[in-house]
Known about the structure:
Elements: H1 3-18, H2 20-23, H3 28-44, H4 46-51, E1 63-74, E2 80-81, E3 84-85, E4 89-94, E5 102-106, E6 110-114, E7 130-131, E8 148-151, E9 165-172, E10 193-202, E11 221-231, E12 238-243, E13 249-253, E14 285-289, E15 324-327, E16 332-338, E17 343-348, E18 354-359, E19 375-376, E20 379-381, E21 389-391, H5 402-407, E22 414-417, E23 424-429, E24 442-446, E25 457-462, E26 467-473, E27 490-495, E28 501-505, E29 510-514, E30 544-546, E31 550-555, E32 561-566, E33 574-583, E34 589-598, E35 610-618, E36 630-639, E37 645-656, E38 663-672, E39 679-689, H6 702-711, H7 733-742, H8 757-772
Parallel strand pairs: 1-26
Antiparallel strand pairs: 1-29, 2-3, 4-5, 5-6, 6-7, 8-9, 9-10, 10-11, 12-13, 13-14, 14-15, 16-17, 17-18, 18-22, 19-20, 20-21, 23-24, 24-25, 25-26, 27-28, 28-29, 30-33, 31-32, 32-39, 33-38, 34-37, 34-39, 35-36, 35-38
Helix pairs in contact: 1-3
Amino acid sequence: MNRRCRLASQEAKAFCRSGSFxxxxxxxxxxxxxxxxxxxxxxxxxxPIAAAPALDWLPPVPISTTEVRLDPYVLSATGYSDGxxxxxxxxxxxxPDGSGRRLISTLGGMLRVVDMAGNFLDESLGGxxxxxNTVETVTGPFGYGLTSFAFHPEFAQTGANGFGKLYALVxxxxxxxxxxxxxxxAFGATNAHAAVLVxxxxxxxxxxxNRLIPSGAGQNVSRRELFIVRESGNSHNFGDxxxxxxxxxxxxxxxxxxxxxxxxxxxxxxIEAFNAQDLSTPLGKILRIDPxxxxxxxxxxxxxxxxxxxxxxxxxxxxxxxxxxSYGHRNPWRISYDQSTGQLIMxxxxxxxxxxxxxxxxxxxxxxxxMTVPMEGKFAMNPIDGFDLTADIxxxxxxxxxxxxxxxYTEPVFQYDHQDGVAATGGFIYRGxxxxxxxxxxxxxxxxxxxxxxxxxxxxxxxxxxNFEQLAISPLGKQFxxxxxxxxxxxxxxxxxxxxxxxxxxxxxxxxxxxxxxxxAPLPPLPKVQNASFESGGPGENWxxxxxxxxxxxxxxxxxFSFDVAGQSTGTGNTSGAFQRIRINGxxxxxxxxxxxxxxxxSLAGTSNVAQLRLEYYNEFGAQxxxxxxxxxxxxxxxxxxxxxxxxxxxELVDLAPAGAVEARLVLxxxxxxxxxxxxxxxxxxxxxxxxxxxxxxxxxxxDLAAWKTGVGIQSGAIRANGDANGDGVVxxxxxxxxxxxxxxxxxxxxxxxxxxxxFVLFAMALASMLAQRVRRF
Length: 778
């Protein structure tokens, strides 16, 4: 079998398996061309396809005893709009504003917004949450388009430099004037397209909107390009974005591989692979930048330097790019940053034999693209014939292969061969609560499976030991189903505000991942204020101060930090405090809690000074208090300073939101009409919607369970009075679990773990119905 035919057989199998011939076409004629190419390869190489499976370089990945359950979250994240195929969801993240909304990006350039139940919130508004496409956009062939997005960590912090900012990686038409590019490939002369990093800044009035308009009438978001890179090929492009806890943005870039259909492609490593080792180009690298800085060559972003900066920003060599964090990567399609460990982890798609998961290291070289000793996983690869590998043996038994050690390479933490899978899809270290057995494990996937283990696969690994297993898929939920038209590969992972995991599939579906013991997944998190405890001593993100209030500025009597509102010793008094918003629906029951402390010696002069807990309601999210958007307020007095107690006092305010309300604003309010010294301390604040208060009597109790029993089994059109806690139009076991979670702690039913015996049959029937098919509104 000749080398070209051998390669073609593998590319044809991957091509047909992926379904990319359909998901990337821009026209029916292109669809026919793609099909014709696949059929041609199948005809000319039919025997090699059958006779040349991937070589068995590594032991098969063991199958774990741990099962995970897949449940539909979004059944069709996409569609066909704006003349582009939107069927390819590339990422999902929560909007970090406490609203419970999530964004899903599509390769066709759209950002779609859904609620916690997976319902689209932008469909009725005439389009996507944000259309990133411009007149210069290109979204085909495969690999072009909107590949990733990320929110600045300060996105929801009013007054912060990163307020309202999100970032996206897009593809544009090639620039006729090469001077427009900020970066060039070192290898590969073709001017195929431009990879662009874009910053979007929302107008403050648009922070709660479900539709952003980037230009023209009603514009509420601005667009800025941070850098433009010339790409010589149509695959291995810029892939993913992730922020660390220092507000630095990591950007993953493939090596710029040429079109696999190009006539000069052969069994050897493509010339574009050498970009990965050349430090004058960003291709084949992980970059780390400060998107709000300005010390880059084009002045549009910052390059971290100094003691904690990028290695190549401090190497004193003008020929290396300071933006480079790590290099020697082939196609790091998905990356994630783990806040707990400070690790940046990537899935790097292999060439002919090995897939790998890497932990990035500042200045680290992962070996791909070397002209002399290229690495694929923990194997040295013959650069003349990319099929031939040599295992890197750790002869001196120091924990690193001798070849990697001799060449200064960083080894992957996990690797598997193409019998187990053909394209690694990087994921996340699991930090949720639905799968206790997997907490702290790195969850990743293979896009489509390999020659022996076919179909998409999920893995869980221990990054400390290097051991990983294939996760079993529970029969109680969805299975990975073959779809010969669109393909069903795992494109990416998503997370929500509770750090639970989701999968985005090539056919447009998004699945929630949970434990099989969950009656229904995901159980929606409840709306609540963020950073509700001030005891960390941090800056108090998500709170907005007014008057002379200062978040986390003082230490209370017990030695913990608190939100301190002090009296005025000059002037005529003051009004001070802080507030935070959550999204609600009119008619919901809200419960707010608060702890206060007034210490001995800090009693403010006079009994007319007051501290209050307030709930304010608005029919427009983010409206001003005296504007037409303000509806009403409810006030609970928490201290009048007529006496002092050296103990924390607990307070609770339960209220029914008025009709038409879309925002509840929790306000910590202090009013001092005269002079005086002293302070009041606030801490342990909470606000949640009591979704299980079905009878609206301001309590979750047995009467609400009775309402649920009456309504259980309603499969469409249910309302809260019927027992529909999560608002999905269905009364089922999820609503019971929400009732159980919100049951008043002092209630005699608070220890109840299942419905009463005479209602258990109904509950079991509802549960069985859920397991068979989850009903959703779209």
